Amino acid sequence: MTTDATKPATAPRRSRPVKVADAIKDFVVERGLRKGDRLPGETQLMAHFGMAKGTIREAMRILEAQGLIVTRTGPGGGSFVHEVSRERARALLGNYFYFQDLTLHDIYQVRRLLEPELAASLAGRLDEAALSQLEAVVATYAHPSATVEEERDQHVASLRFHQLLADFAENALLGFLIGFMAQILTDVTVYRRLYEPPNVELWSRGRAYQLQLVEALRMGDSDRARLVMADHMATAEALMEGQEARVLKRFMAQ
């Protein structure tokens, strides 16, 4: 006997404009349309999908809100296929996780799985210009911070190092996930004020690992790059959790 508690969950009903929006996405893929290609006009879409003007317009508004099309007015205007940027995709995905109460352990559990593999995959594959970009980021925090504001900026810059590594990834999915996790950690660090008080050990050890990593990448030593990044992630997690405990203790004492 099936009870309400054991009934399989049913998917929420999708509105007609949402269904049409998905059908338009399929239309784009099936015809091999790319960024900048013009979509058929409203009348043509109405005829093709057999839908009323209001439904087509609402479907197009949904796609525009998702960043998948852009509409231009005036001569030569119309609706065009648009490519969602990584920044926009991360922002949209971040809206979901904003309400998930992520812990530092949640974030580092993913980072410890992915970042060592990214580091290993990049060893010997980055040119000197790319390596110099990484070194330039590390150079922005060459000395311990003197103020809380400078400590915050150094935390953000240190995570930008990892976002830059993610940008170099040949695997687009791997790069996106790592860049997203770095952005999530940046946001968490700032709004939880995990940069206060300044932590010299976190600065010193993190910077040392990053310099060692750049050298392993330059030498093409994938095993070394993987090991350095794994140690970096484990150390950073322990120190950041300790930092969070200090922040909480200070808050509770107030």
What does this structure look like?
There is one protein chain. The protein is mainly alpha-helical and 254 residues long. 67% of the residues lie in helices and 3% in strands. It has ten helices and two strands, in the order αααββααααααα. It has helices spanning 16-30, 42-49, 53-65, 86-97, 104-122, 128-139, 148-167, 172-191, 200-219, 222-253, and strands at residues 69-72, 78-81. The chain has a two-stranded antiparallel sheet. A hairpin with a 5-residue loop joins strand 1 (69-72) and strand 2 (78-81). Helix 5 (104-122) packs antiparallel against helix 8 and helix 6 packs antiparallel against helix 9 (200-219).
Quick structural summary:
The chain is mainly α and 254 residues long. It has helices at 16-30, 42-49, 53-65, 86-97, 104-122, 128-139, 148-167, 172-191, 200-219, 222-253, and strands spanning 69-72, 78-81. It contains ten helices and two strands, in the order H-H-H-E-E-H-H-H-H-H-H-H.
